[in-house]
Amino acid sequence: MAIRVMLVDDQVLLRTGFRMVLAAQPDMEVVAEAGDGAEALEVLRHTRVDVVLMDVRMPRMDGVEATRHICGGDRGDAGRREGEGPRVLILTTFDLDEYAFAALKAGASGFMLKDVPPDELLGAIRAVHSGDAVVAPSTTRRLLDRFTPMLPSAAAEEHKEVDRLTDREREVLLLVAQGLSNGEIARKLVLSEATVKTHVGRILAKLGLRDRVQAVVLAYETGLVRAGG
Fold this sequence. Notes:
Layout: E1 3-8, H1 12-23, E2 28-34, H2 37-44, E3 51-54, H3 63-71, E4 87-92, H4 98-106, E5 110-113, H5 118-129, H6 137-147, H7 155-158, H8 167-177, H9 182-189, H10 193-207, H11 212-221
Parallel strand pairs: 1-2, 1-3, 3-4, 4-5
């Protein structure tokens, strides 16, 4: 089945451009569009969507608040079980955008620039749909290095579940926080990629996280990884 994509951006020309790129793909279909977050939530009440391409800065309701509602399951009559809601891929003009970082914390599964090459955008949509996260390691580190000081200091106390991780799981989490892919972690630890994927899955389950992006954020929040370190 085709990946059902929703475009959320207040610039009509940008939505048109993205729609043309996606329409040329046999495995993708643009099923809905919206000009701001509030309209997006309304559309999601009666439209089944797999991936939302979300702008950050929009009138009425911005992409951060909309992402928080979507990933939190607050979609009115959408009526889908936890974990089955659409995944959000943030598209922004600025590489270091505090609003985009906030959206990642709100549950977005990816962060990319709007001028990303078409092939990379299409690959990101497919990756997010399959349950992976798409944030370039360099972008992840720069975002976290800049904004970690703004995170609440109480975060570590709120996530004592980290203590439940095995030594290997903690080791894998540290490498995930450095932006390494499963393949890179496998090579570094001399493990199979399938084993690393299993470890990542257990880490997410134990910590109650949606994806590896949130795992990266949590690693910084709890002090497992230090900004700039």
